[in-house]
Inverse folding.
């Protein structure tokens, strides 16, 4: 009798532990998904998923075994109650250790909060390194593509809707094909209107080649771009130092005047560990 009760207690305890681990992994995965953490590598995520499904499977079988053993013990207890000749023969039922359960739940809650807080701190540090790597890569890429882009911009004295050149299209396509770059946009001023900017490429229209698009200055980003194109790059420099996967590259002519600004939107989902060697080489070159 006692051996079966011990087996049931052991099964229930193991099931609770397995389900608790599974619940902990679910909460951790939820924070990882919705807070955009970059703590775990793809291999680590696969291991955690395997551990989660293992705990879930074993916990499910443990719950089923506990139910079967529990029903068996309930049936036997009912039989003993019916067959008992005297009321004093019944064994006293011990009171459930409520305080112990409360302590366990409090410890699990503190552990979860500590893990989430530690994960946030670690994610900030990792994100800062990823941003630094991204910006080093972009600056290194601009050292190579910048002269070509400068030449293409120089061939467009005044932007217009049909001023897109084949070379400009190729450079734009090259940037967009890079895995760390999500998209890029080139901005040029309108010499006839201070409140207008020209953007390349324009919104895609079926059957039309990519070209420039005229837009009025409305947002703070537009104003920062206009200031940079007028020679004041302080706002753009501040934006380049912000913690965002964006970079604004000034395209200057031979006289040092800013003729255009290339805005590059980085890919925050890219694994920048693969670019570590490139970033280190770019950092050495300054």
């Amino acid at each position: 009798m006692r051996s079966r009760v011990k087996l049931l207690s052991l099964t229930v305890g193991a099931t609770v532990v397995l389900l608790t681990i599974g619940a902990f992994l679910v909460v951790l995965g939820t924070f990882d998904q919705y807070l955009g953490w970059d703590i775990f590598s793809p291999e680590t995520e696969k291991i955690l998923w395997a551990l989660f499904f293992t705990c879930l499977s074993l916990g499910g079988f443990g719950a089923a075994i506990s139910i079967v053993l529990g029903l068996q013990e309930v049936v036997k207890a009912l039989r003993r109650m019916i067959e008992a000749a005297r009321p004093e023969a019944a064994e006293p039922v011990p009171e459930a250790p409520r305080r112990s359960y409360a302590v366990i739940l409090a410890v699990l809650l503190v552990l979860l909060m500590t893990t989430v807080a530690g994960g946030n701190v670690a994610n900030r540090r990792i994100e800062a390194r990823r941003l630094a790597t991204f910006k080093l890569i972009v600056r290194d890429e601009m050292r190579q593509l910048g002269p070509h882009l400068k030449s293409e911009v120089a061939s467009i004295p005044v932007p217009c809707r049909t001023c897109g050149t084949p070379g400009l299209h190729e450079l734009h396509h090259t940037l967009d094909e890079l895995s760390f770059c999500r998209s890029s946009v080139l901005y040029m001023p309108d010499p006839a209107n201070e409140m207008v900017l020209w953007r390349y490429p324009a919104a895609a229209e079926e059957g039309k080649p990519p070209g420039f698009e005229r837009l009025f200055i409305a947002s703070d980003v537009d104003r920062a771009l206009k200031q940079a194109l007028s020679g004041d790059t302080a706002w753009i420099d501040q934006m380049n130092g912000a913690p965002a996967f964006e970079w604004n590259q000034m395209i200057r002519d031979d006289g040092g005047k800013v003729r255009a600004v290339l805005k590059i939107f980085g890919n925050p989902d890219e694994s920048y560990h693969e670019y570590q060697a490139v970033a280190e080489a770019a950092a050495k070159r300054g």
In short: DSSP finds seven helices and five strands in the chain. Residues 98-154 form the longest helix (57 residues). Residues 2-94 form one domain.
